[in-house]
């Protein structure tokens, strides 16, 4: 039986401890999601294309796993694995693929994704700064001047999620003008929702107190009634038509 | 949490749902339907903010 102090706990892995392949995995998944997945899961595309698309993701994931033990293998596995499988998917998908359709916006987003993937794969991994601990001054932990009230993060998280979720609408529009209109309207809607969610969060601890609940409901009543009237009108219109 | 807070959250959810319906209708080129849903969405979001204004405004 060994005596002595217990071994120090193993430090938690941080992003800065990851290698280049692991850091490149995020742009890789983005580029895959924009340019490869839509081609592989398009109408009438061979199941082999789906298999190669999945293989590309698996290879990127495998590269992040083996990078710590075999760093020389990880980079080619990630870069060539994803690039070759993606080319095979596009060849199997044919002219119906994203590249073949000539969608400018998707093409630009996809090119940006591949550029980021190439840059992240070729750049050296970001290491933690060695001098950082020397800059830390000893002393009691500083207390924040202002405490962030509870649930504020939930409001903001909801607003951001809704704004991002609204961007998922309308990506299968064939006409470029209509697609641009949908994107603009959804962008404006996302900004409106994000603004409203942050307004709700901020107003909970505004310097001036909120009015009584009944008064606030009365103030919103005209819009709520308008909403009810529009909803009823729409339902009647849909029923008659 | 007061009733007005619940109303604000519900109205915001109504607004988001209406915006999604409006975007889908716009994608289908149903312009009248899209206009309807976008107006509902705007009214929902606006009424949500109205319920949370400070007392003397």
Describe this structure in words.
- The complex is a heterodimer of chains A (241) and B (57).
- Chain A has two domains: 15-126; 152-240, no CATH class.
- Chain A contains nine helices and no strands.
- Chain A has helices at residues 20-40, 47-66, 71-93, 98-101, 104-122, 132-135, 152-166, 176-203, 213-240.
- With 57 residues, chain B is mostly helical.
- Chain B has one domain (3-50).
- Helix content of chain B is 79%, strand content 0%.
- Chain B has helices at 3-27, 31-50.
- In chain B, helix 1 (3-27) runs antiparallel to helix 2.
- Chain B starts with a helix and ends in a 7-residue tail after the last helix.
- The model of chain B has no long low-confidence stretch (mean pLDDT 86).
- The chains are: A mainly alpha (241), B mainly alpha (57).
- The A-B interface holds A 162, 165-166, 169-170, 172-173, 178, 181-182, 185-186, 189, 192-193, 196-197, 199-200, 203-204, 206, 208-211, 213-217, 219-220, 223-224, 226-227, 230-231, 234 and B 2-5, 7-9, 11-12, 14-16, 19-20, 22-24, 26-27, 29, 34, 36, 38-57.
Mean pLDDT of chain B: 86
Q: What is the gyration radius of chain A calculated from CA atoms?
A: 26 Å
Distance between the termini of chain B: 21 Å
Helix content of chain B: over 70%
Largest interface: A-B, 40 and 42 residues
Unreliable residue runs of chain B: none
Tally of individual domains of chain B: 1
Shape of chain B: elongated
The helix/strand class of chain A is mainly alpha
Count up the domains of chain A: 2
Q: Give the overall shape of chain A, derived from the CA principal axes.
A: flat
